[in-house]
Design a protein that fits this description.
single chain, about 350 residues, alpha/beta, Rossmann fold, Flavocytochrome B2, Chain A, domain 1, 2 domains, 12 strands, globular, binds thiamine diphosphate, binds iron/sulfur cluster
């Protein structure tokens, strides 16, 4: 049976929504809601922030405390919320124009400060709400209402800007590459720091039709021709690549100083407790219990993860489970787990 519990996170009473039929924003809203639901994120532990635009309307349909900011200011509000309430997950939903043009300066400086904020950018490569003007990510040569002979300037390469300085998490995906899209949403939400997902999406009415596409599906096929998925975690993504680029901060080693080694408490193999799947399922973080997960035969204690702190400690769906298969399908979570202490072994 299809799990439709993500709908609890949407204000269904406000439907039908405002977007045109075939618009990619619906897919972004639905899949972000599914990703939040899967990770146990809801109105008690998460705040949503949007800017202005068709994309900026997503926050209004979500069953969360959501802030609809002036045009371009979503990241300033998100940063303020995170500063005042570090226990909250803060998620920004907005468009390429809002985040990359009028909000571009905030994007630069928020990414530099690296707060734990996740941004989902519905990148339809146009200003949709205001009638289809060329925006910062409009590809060169695209005919728009403000560039009837084709956009003169090359687009802003969000990926290049956001991966220029470590640490960073930048993912590019499309509304058409559904499995990849879902994996990016999940990885971005799990990342501790500033994560940005550039979701190539369609504005069929005010971008697609002007370029000769008759349906949203024709635009999806065009996304499939323009982009291809690259596996694993990269340092950077080429302009035609869909994937995840992630890098930790470079460690500064002063001249003459010995690099500091991370101290890991040594646990002897014979001291490790052996857990069955059944026993593991009880160590799920509920009622003050620790948060254990299984991975490749070992049990890791994730209780100290900042994701699971605060008075409203989340009951995360990953706790108490053997995640080996899930993480093999989406290997980006591995480095998240390996830094936590090994506290046991999984009985086969
Ligand atoms: C200060 C200010 N300048 C301009 C506008 C007009 N305006 C509203 S939405 C928008 C563009 C939004 O584009 P994007 O973020 O790509 O969203 P989309 O509508 O394509 O989803 C503009 C220029 C505004 N509302 N406020
Ligand atoms: S104008 Fe474009 S972006 Fe706005 S709702 Fe319609 S299709 Fe979507």
């Amino acid at each position: 049976m299809i799990d439709r519990s993500y709908k609890e996170l949407l204000k269904m009473r406000r439907f039908p929504h405002t977007w045109c039929p075939g618009c990619g924003i619906g897919a972004v809203l639905k899949n972000v809601a599914m990703g939040l639901k899967e990770l146990g994120l809801d109105y008690q532990n998460t705040a949503i922030v949007s800017g202005i635009g068709c994309s900026g309307r997503m926050g209004g349909y979500m069953n969360f405390d959501a802030v609809h900011t002036p045009h371009g200011r979503a990241l300033t509000a998100a940063g303020a919320i995170k500063t005042a309430r570090p226990d909250l997950k803060v998620v920004v939903l907005s468009g390429d124009g809002d985040l990359g043009a009028i909000g571009g300066n905030h994007l630069l400086h928020t990414s530099r400060r690296n707060p734990d904020i996740t941004v989902f950018c519905n990148d339809n490569e146009i200003y949709g709400l205001t009638g289809g003007q060329a925006g910062p990510t409009t590809p060169k040569g695209t005919k728009t209402i403000t560039s009837p002979r084709g956009e003169m300037y090359p687009p802003l390469r969000l990926g290049k800007i956001l991966t220029a300085q470590t640490p960073y998490f930048f993912a590019r995906t499309t509304v058409y590459h559904l499995n990849h899209f879902k994996a990016c949403i999940r990885e971005a939400l799990l990342y501790q720091g500033f994560s940005f997902v550039d979701i190539i999406s369609d504005c069929i009415e005010l971008n697609g039709r002007r370029q000769g596409f008759k349906t949203a599906h024709q635009m999806f096929k065009w996304f499939d021709e323009r982009f291809h998925v690259v596996e694993g975690v990269r340092d950077h993504l080429e302009d035609d690549e869909l994937g995840i680029a992630k890098k930790e901060a470079e460690v500064e080693v002063k001249a003459g100083a010995k690099p500091e080694m991370e101290e890991k408490p040594e646990i002897l193999e014979e001291d490790l407790k052996h857990y069955t799947i059944e026993e593991l399922s009880h160590v799920d973080g509920s009622e003050g219990r620790p948060i254990f997960i299984g991975y490749k035969g070992k049990i890791y204690d994730l209780s100290s993860s900042p994701l699971f702190q605060g008075e409203k400690r989340m009951r995360c769906h990953i706790a108490g489970k053997n995640l080996t298969k899930d993480m093999e399908a989406a290997p980006h979570g591995e480095d998240l787990v390996l830094k936590f202490p090994v506290v046991g072994r999984l009985k086969e």
